[in-house]
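#structure-requests
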Amino acid sequence: MRGFPSGRIVARSICTAGLLSTLMSLPAHAAEDCRTANASCPTVSSLLSQREGYGRAATGGAGGQVVVVTSAEDAGPGTLRDALREVKRRPTWIRFASDMTIALESQIRVPSNVTIDGRDHAVKLLDYGLGIYGAENVIVTHLTIDGRLRTFSQAINVANGSRNVWIDHLDLSRFADRLLNVKNGSTDVTVSWVKFHDDDKVMLLNNITSDNLFKNYDRDVIARVTLHHNWFIDTAQRNPRAQFGTFHLYNNLLENWDFYGMSFSLEAKATVEGNVFINKSQRACTEPPFFPTVEGVNASYCSYIAGAPARSTLVNGESDRKSYERTRAKYQYSQDYRAFLAVRDNLYLGDARAVLESYHPEVVPAHPYCYGYERPDLQLVGRIRAHAGNVPPDKVTPCNFD
């Protein structure tokens, strides 16, 4: 659990006996050795001590080589793209030599056993982001990725059976597709302390790829994703949109969505607790003139702002209900179009209104890990605003297992 300002009272650390060792940081040794990404290196141990959630087993490039990016070019010697091409399954911890802005000409693919660590420098990727496809054991922390609404791509795309992935302290904005996906059989992912902003369809946790809504259910139901302490600000929708899979959303901050906040459907099993929703029905619209879409439609949601606070979430299953009703007879669905939900302790401020209710919460699995849960209040709001995104690391205190 992270450290807190003096006098801050944390509501509780929630732990499950027997599985706590998976969250423990690597052992620290007296001698500092950062020539490789060993446990004795404070750079490594300080980051790994912060892991929580379903992606808590990710160690990235720990124990492997340290590679330093020295060039802000798209490709070639010393570049981020070149460093990732040369990994070849060797654990690799990537750092940056200086502040740099990298205008990418295409998405960069991230292989297994890699940490991309932007701490200590201001590192920004423009126009394209990172693709994590069929990879295991990946950590990405402290980067800014800005699509500038120029490409039909994603800031972070976790897909094709990827697992053990931790996405942390990123600033993601302005992609014409989505800022983040977790889909196509990917699982055991944590997304923490990320600032999502100035975007339309922000995050998709699984997606429908067929007229048959449940065609890929067996593949995607394995998904397990934790979202905590993320800041969704000045977005339109899908913060996130979740289908199938098991999801844990706690202590996230949603502010000023223009269409709707969260969405759950198609037998997703989600715990939604301790999140803060803030919106006003009368405020200026900060959207660009339009969002380009893959369908070729220029979308705008400014006209929806007056009713947006009442849509902190969509009604359970509403995002897929019409498609379900239209195709149910054809495919003889036995599944529910609604999600199974355990909803508790969320806070609604301004004009924001509660929509989501628990639905068969007994079906939602208990989470097999310790997590640093905070009471949803204005102090939590201030902490997330101050620390989410690509900002200097705050002090860390390991999770208390007592």
